[in-house]
Amino acid sequence: MAAERKSSRAPVPSDSYSRSSPLELSPGVRAGTSTIRTAEDAAARAVALAEEAGKQGTFAVGGLLVDESGRVIAEATNAVIRNDHLSDPTAHVERQLVDWLAHERRRGLSPSPRNVTIVSSLDPCAMCAGAILRSGMRVIIVAEDNVAGVHENLKPRHMPRELQAQAQRDMAFFGVQGKRPRPAQVAPIFASDVSAEHVARSTEIFSASLREVQQRVGGGGSDAGPRIFEPAEGVFLNLREVAAQLGPLVEIGKGPLNIHEPASRSELMKLLARDGSVLVDEEGNVIVASKGAETISRARTSVLEVIRAYTFIRRTIKDRFNIALPLQRYCSIVKRAAPSEPAKGLLELGATGSFLELQRPTNKLPAMGYMQRANLTRAQEFAASLPQLYHDIGITVGQVGGG
Question: In 3-state terms, what secondary structure has residue 397?
């Protein structure tokens, strides 16, 4: 393969992607302008935002960020699908609000995570639960989700056991007269019952959106692409040109790399340094890598960053250069080692499920692979604790690359 020219990258602000970057961490979030007086007000507004999301063609989930006085700091809709295309598989309401608050706090504009509550129309998925628990924020929920929600019978059972006491304290459901008890440890404005109609409506509109959006995220349709990444001459140059728009966190290898090949190991370890992640095809060919930005936001681990990057790169390189990259269900995410922190493990495995949405058609590699055995048993326990959807999809973990 001909030598690839090096591309230069403009510096980016330390607290975000570059101002010209096409990626937004919280595209479905807007500043709030109202005040919540009662639990009923909060639930009604969250469900109204969920309906708004459903009309936009994405998962019908909505939410608010409310301070202790009832001031609505921000409102959010799911933004996985935007402008009629897959935009960001991680753009769920709660994850967006966690990143939004972290960004605003760096600007000195918002209260601490412990002084706000996310009001969500639906039980958080594993990714969002991990983001909430890592951030120190609280959440109060309108409706249960028996598909991907982390609760079962109102208890946070679908997460590592080490997190369940914290989740019991920081994650609650609104009370519904005659159906659900009022939560004990919430701000006074949430300590009253809400109408059962809000619960039913939230469940109804989310269920109506679920299958179509899952297919749009994970199905691929006519745009499924190849199963194997086999770059022709010049493809890495094109990849670097597209990736350069996303700032220095995102990296493309100097040439073909494979996690199974000893000759790739030195360059691969550089990409995986500082808890980086790489996305590979089912044969282990490396496509894109990313570092995390956890000092900015606890939800910005390298796994979520590489998911966002690959979603953009795959769409853009097809549009600009007519280069087809593998659909995510043919891919795996690889790190040096599994996280020991339960909330980070929940966040990353949950994000991988949100990236896939549908069952993986291959077992050649686990969905999440680790080059080293460190913390592998814990990661397997984290995966086993996930809600049923993640098992149906095939969110497995394992050692890869021969150690």
Answer: strand
pLDDT in tens, 28-73: 999 999 999 999 999 999 999 999 999 999 999 999 999 999 999 9
Tell me the C-alpha distance between 81 and 221, whole Å.
15
DSSP for 347-376, written as a single string? HHHHHHHHHH-S--S--SS-SEEESS-TTH
Q: Do 359 and 394 form a contact (C-beta atoms < 8 A)?
A: yes
Spatial distance between the Cα atoms of 69 and 357, rounded to a whole number of angstroms? 37
pTM for this prediction? 0.94
Give CA angle at 126 (125, 130), nearest 5°. 120
Q: Residues 83-99, buried b or exposed e (16+ Cβ, 10 A)?
A: eeebbbbbbbbbbbbbb
Q: Are 396 and 383 in contact (CB under 8 A)?
A: yes
- Amino acid 266 reads S
Segment 276-315, tens digit of pLDDT: 999 999 999 999 999 999 999 999 999 999 999 999 999 9
Three-state DSSP state, 402: coil
Among residues 391, 401, 363, 343, the alpha carbon closest in space to that of 165 is found at 343
CB under 8 Å to 56, separation ≥6 — which residues? 77, 81, 82
Report how far residue 97's alpha carbon sits from residue 74's, in angstroms, rounded to the nearest whole number: 8
In three-state secondary structure terms, 102 is: helix
**Which residue, 356, 222, 208, 332, is CA-closest to 277?**
332
